[in-house]
Automatic annotation (TrEMBL):
Main location class: membrane
Keywords, ordered alphabetically: Membrane, Metal-binding, Transmembrane, Transmembrane helix, Zinc, Zinc-finger
Subcellular location: Membrane
GO biological process: detection of chemical stimulus involved in sensory perception of bitter taste; protein insertion into membrane; protein targeting to membrane
Tagged with keyword Transmembrane helix: yes
GO CC field: membrane
Record organism: Rotaria socialis
3CxxC-type domain location: 12-132
Topological type in the membrane: Single-pass membrane protein
The protein, known as: 3CxxC-type domain-containing protein
Superkingdom as given in the UniProt entry: Eukaryota
InterPro entries: R-trans_p, ZAR1/RTP1-5-like_Znf-3CxxC
Length: 139
């Protein structure tokens, strides 16, 4: 487990608001959208440490990235936002994921993975599709 980052991706439904378009007075409907393929990528680095008293601590580092989608109107990349409930679900998943990755707690279900097909998903506007982390698997 040493010496590398471990990756996990979480799929949820998020909202996107293009601030550039909203600032330019574009109608709300054209400048905001939601996507069932909002992808959050987490990576964990396992780096246990020993403190000055010789006490061993198990843990490491976690980094999180929410993938962007491209605005249909102006082509700006916009980062997804989660509402309170979706955010809580994600944090819950993240806790379990860390417990699994660092401390070996069993973790069978890796969270909601999306419907795997959605004709509304615009693959060429999705940063996580581009980078291969999106849970969308085509029609
Ligand atoms: Zn825009
Ligand atoms: Zn995608």
């Amino acid at each position: 487990m040493f010496g590398g980052w471990l990756y996990g991706s979480y799929n949820t439904k998020g909202k996107f608001r293009c601030l550039k378009c909203l600032k330019n007075g574009t109608a709300n409907n054209d400048a905001t959208w939601s996507s069932a393929y909002t992808t959050i990528l987490c990576r964990a680095y396992y780096g246990p440490d020993t403190d000055e008293n010789g006490q061993a601590w198990i843990g490491g580092w976690i980094q999180v990235k929410i993938f962007a989608q491209q605005c249909l109107n102006c082509a700006e990349y916009v980062t997804g936002e989660l509402d309170d409930q979706k955010c809580q679900n994600f944090v819950n998943w993240l806790h379990r994921w860390i417990a699994h990755m660092f401390y070996g707690y069993p973790f069978r279900r890796l969270g909601y993975q999306g419907k795997q097909s959605d004709r509304h998903h615009l693959v060429n506007r999705c940063e996580s599709c581009e980078q291969g982390w999106c849970h969308y698997r085509g029609k």
